[in-house]
Design a protein that fits this description.
It holds the Pfam family tRNA_SAD. The protein is of the alpha+beta class. 41% of the residues lie in helices and 20% in strands. It has 4 domains: 5-191 and 199-256, Bira Bifunctional Protein, Domain 2 (BirA Bifunctional Protein, domain 2), CATH 3.30.930; 260-378, no CATH class; 390-456, no CATH class; 460-599, Threonyl-tRNA Synthetase, Chain A, domain 2. Helix 10 (335-347) packs across helix 12 (358-389) and helix 17 (460-480) packs across helix 18.
Length: 600
């Protein structure tokens, strides 16, 4: 069944709505108030509080299609299936239905609505451990649905268990988790590569199988004594990659032939006058161009600017690697601005901001590319000399190049790979990190931490700061007027950062007045509560919203006494007295009518 990505989105939405599910709007790629991760990494990221027990405004049956970034996959891009950005199609049951309904509905969606051949589908199931039983229930359900026994495989917790901390042994007390059941497609026209093992199976890395759906059954909680107890309310968390499902529907193991990637490949062919499949290096290069350009465009459209820290560093890294690879195909100028229209054409009806911001993004990319091409030219001879002179101390060589020319170590590693110089990448990264720390490169060090990913930080101090941002937001309205708009925030255990727009630049006396108001409200010991109400009603009573985000028809509104009311998912303190005293210790202008406050 050949369908477009737009048709797949409609089929998915229609199916789950018929089953009583409500659409949860996607959150931005840069998650609000989550300092532990650079980007939104999954569809369930915004639902962590709900999976842990908080009620969701839309009820117990939910679905969405969430764009997500896996920064840690950047070095894997170039094969037939890895990308840095992807779209996760998910459905959830929050203490409602469980294994029987979930597996049956997934099977029907895949085999009936999408008409995937049943004999091409394979299943993986949790094999059990000494403390957690084998998931025989899922196996029985799959067999009753018609899955042949020789198409069902059992794996241990490394493959078929989900928790935020990984396998059961790594879960801290209070952490929920459970077994999962994954769905694979077999590309039978591919021959198994024996270097990956004597026998092929669904989790083999040879490429014959592709996982395209995963149902997690969150049914356990880790106790203080190390045991696992059953949750009173069991949840289902399903995720299926839109790109992978489209590849399955094409029966093509090459994911870059689907219609959210192929148009970018076609543009690359036109720019380079080279065919995608002309040779192995060209194929890999064009995949990198397609992936990095798509990710860079969507990240930039979400408001990220190239820089040397955090999300901006990752954006810069994508653009520079793409420019560097473009040179291998003879593309010497304007690769980013030339490829941008292809991404706009693909996604403008799904994510309208990419078309609205096309000119701004184009100007940003043009400037970044022109600066980096100068760096590339300056670095070219230095790289050649460094490779000739190096005595295998590649990490130090890479660092020296970066210090002298701004040539990033990822690109230096690519140079070594092209010259068939093999290195121990793990050792290189460890040594390079030590050198960086020695020279106190704090921004890059912070990115290394965040590339590992993570979920919302709910430590006590960050929860206090979260509530404090609501007080700060409201105090700025009181001091500066009603045209104040929140543009973003970032919270760590050390401080809160609050970005906002205002037609009037705050003076020192304004910030002092806002601080006084906040601390007065803290002293008043105001109760913090939430209500789930219709969005129209929330807007009618004047609840503040983060305007960049989309909100469903039913929303959660947090009330800080009678002083503040704001759209928010939580978590918060129960009373403002828990916050303690707050001070604004830094203020800066970050753009036209845009300002940033740091407080602690």
């Amino acid at each position: 069944m050949l369908i477009t990505h737009l048709q797949l989105r409609k089929l998915f939405s229609k199916f789950w709505e018929k089953k009583g599910h409500k659409l949860v709007p996607p959150i931005p790629l840069v998650p609000k108030e989550d300092p532990t991760t650079l980007f939104t990494g999954s569809g369930m990221q915004q639902l962590v509080p709900n999976l842990l027990g908080e009620p969701h405004p839309l009820g117990k049956r939910l679905y969405n299609i969430q764009p997500a970034v896996r920064a840690q996959d950047v070095d894997e891009v170039g094969d037939n299936r890895h990308t840095t950005i992807f779209e996760m199609m998910g459905n959830w049951s929050l203490g409602d239905y469980f294994k029987q309904e979930q597996l049956e509905w997934c099977w029907n969606f895949f085999t009936k609505d999408l008409e995937i051949q049943k004999n091409k589908i394979y299943i993986s199931i949790f094999a059990g451990t000494k403390t957690v039983p084998r998931d025989s229930e899922s196996a029985t359900i799959w067999k009753k649905l018609g899955v042949a026994e020789n198409h069902i495989f059992f794996y241990g917790p490394e493959k078929n268990w989900w928790s935020r901390a990984g396998i059961p042994e790594n879960m801290p007390a209070g952490e929920p988790g459970g077994p999962n059941s994954e769905v694979f497609y077999e590309f039978s026209n591919m021959t198994h590569n024996p270097k990956f093992g004597s026998k092929c199976h669904p989790n083999c890395d040879c490429g014959r199988f592709m996982e395209f759906g995963n149902s997690v059954f969150m049914q356990y909680k880790k106790e203080k004594d190390g045991s696992l107890s059953e949750l009173p309310k069991k949840n289902v968390d399903f995720g299926g990659g839109l790109e992978r499902i489209l590849a399955v529907l094409m029966s093509s193991p090459d994911m870059f032939k689907i219609d959210v990637l192929l148009p970018i490949i076609k543009f690359s062919e036109d720019l380079s006058h080279t065919k995608y499949k002309s040779d192995e290096n060209t194929t890999r290069t064009m995949r990198i161009l397609a992936d990095h350009m798509r990710s860079a465009a969507l990240i930039a459209a979400d408001g990220v600017l190239p820089s040397n820290k955090d999300q901006g560093y990752f954006l810069r890294r994508l653009l520079r690697k793409m420019i560097r690879y473009g040179k291998n195909l003879g593309i010497e100028n304007n690769i980013s601005t030339s490829l941008l229209p292809s991404i706009v054409g693909i996604f403008k009806s799904v994510y309208p901001q990419i078309e609205k911001k096309q000119t701004a993004v184009q100007n940003i990319f043009k400037l970044e590319e022109s600066k980096f091409r100068v760096t590339l030219e300056n670095a070219r001879l230095s790289v050649e000399k460094a490779i000739k002179k190096s005595s295998n101390n590649w990490a130090q060589t890479a660092f020296d190049l970066f210090q002298s020319t701004g040539y990033h170590p990822e690109l230096f590693l690519e140079d070594l790979k092209e010259k068939n110089i093999e290195i121990d990448k793990r050792k290189f990264n460890q040594t390079y990190k030590l050198i960086f720390e020695k020279h106190q490169n704090i921004s890059k060090k912070g990115v290394d931490k965040k590339f590992k990913g993570g979920l919302a930080d709910t430590k006590g101090q960050t929860i206090k700061y979260h509530t404090a941002t609501h007080l700060l937001h409201q105090s700025l309205f009181a001091v500066l007027g009603n045209d104040v708009r929140q543009e973003g925030s970032n919270i760590t255990t050390e401080r809160l950062r609050f970005d906002f727009s205002s037609s009037r630049k705050p003076e020192k006396k304004d910030l002092e007045k806002a601080t006084k108001i906040i601390n007065q409200k803290i002293k008043e010991k105001l109760p913090v509560e939430f209500k789930i109400i219709p969005k129209k009603e929330a807007l009618k009573i004047g609840a503040r919203s983060f305007f960049k985000e989309k909100y469903p028809d039913m929303v959660k509104v947090y009330f800080v006494g009678k002083y503040s009311k704001e759209f928010c998912g939580g978590p918060h303190v129960k009373n403002t007295k828990e916050i303690g005293k707050l001070e604004i210790f830094k203020f800066e202008k970050i753009g036209s009518n845009l300002y940033r406050i740091y407080a602690r």
